[in-house]
Amino acid sequence: MLARRASGSGGEGPEMSDFGAFEKYTKGIPTKLLKKMGYKGGGLGKNEQGIVFPIEAKLRPKKNMGMGFNEYKEISLPALHESKPVEGRKRKKLWSKKFERIKKVHITAEELLAKKQEQGFEVVQMNLNSEEKTKDDYVPMPELQHNIRLIIDLVELDIQKIDNELRNERETVVIFQMEKEKLKALAACQKELLSNMEQIVSVLDRIDNESTLGTLTLDSLAKAFADLKQQYTEEYKLCNLSCIACKYVLPLFVLFFEGWDPLQTPTRGLEVVSLWKNLLQVDDILTISNAASLYSQLFMEVVFPAVRISCTNIWQAREPERMLHFLESWEKLLPPAALQTILENIVLPKLSAAVNSLDPRRETIPVHSWLHPWLPLLGLKLESFYFTMRSRLESVLHAWHPSDMSAYYILSPWKTV
């Protein structure tokens, strides 16, 4: 090949037909290996920037001719040889600019979380088979850059995951702290309740001891339970101390009202009963019915028997003042059931008997003077007496003379009734 090149003209390069002719001695193995690696002919390299022809040895006109002799110009390679390296250099320049343009800026984890928070923690979607390519710009090492981006995305996901877990842990800590405070407050309340219960038990033991010795009085008992209700209001409701108080006060009330005549001294015991009504009743809606029943039971067992005996044996229907005075004095302390029982079982039978025995010709007290005062309390229940009243008055009015004014005084009070 060198002899052929030397015999030729100095300005001509080797012909393409002679390229690779030496492979006849190597059985074409180098070309086969190159084709397996993707070589399709032309310059070597990914962008075919390598020279096609090998560097040629040039024979100078004279043997003793050195470089630069008599301004001798070296024969340059054909344009084909120079075009590839020039293009390669241009590619390399574009490669470096692209590399500079896509260079990543490193940020901290805090900056990354702040950025993701502004973006609303968008989910990073990864596609291993997708790459953005442009025809004009060359991306150097796209597989490496893709892998690096993938690693960065995975790290960002890990950072976000760790941050979410950290946030959850902090929220859990806050919840546990609040629960701890609640339990501490509950423990303090339970401790205070236990201490209060111990004080209440000590007071009840003292009251029980005084009751056993017979030194317990209504005043001391009322003061003890009044102090308990004032100091331990919640425990007073919770433990239903009113029921315990009723147990101790009932025998003392029996002794206090023994021999009492409500018609003679209707105001006796008003202050005592009023005090115990407040002690036996509480403001709690759930226990108000029970407390009301306790007070009603105390009244019906102690006060009502004295009222029934005195009104049945002593009170007369034609003298309503004493009975009305008693009812007015005890108006705020009478349980509704007790007032209803007194009116229906004591007052009405007495009035009925008096009306049935009425004789207008012999009566010295006008009937309206002792019957009409009961209108505010009995109302329509007195209508059952009106028929008897008309029949009694009719029997005496048939012989009446207009000059007699007594009929006017008897009938005029009934006009409004």
From TrEMBL:
Span of domain G-patch: 26-72
Gene Ontology, cellular component aspect: U2-type post-mRNA release spliceosomal complex
Tree of life domain: Eukaryota
Biological processes annotated in GO: spliceosomal complex disassembly
Molecular functions (GO terms): nucleic acid binding
PROSITE patterns in the cross-refs: G_PATCH
Homology family: Belongs to the TFP11/STIP family.
PANTHER family: TUFTELIN-INTERACTING PROTEIN 11, TUFTELIN-INTERACTING PROTEIN 11-RELATED
Name of this chain's protein: G-patch domain-containing protein
Record organism: Anisodus tanguticus
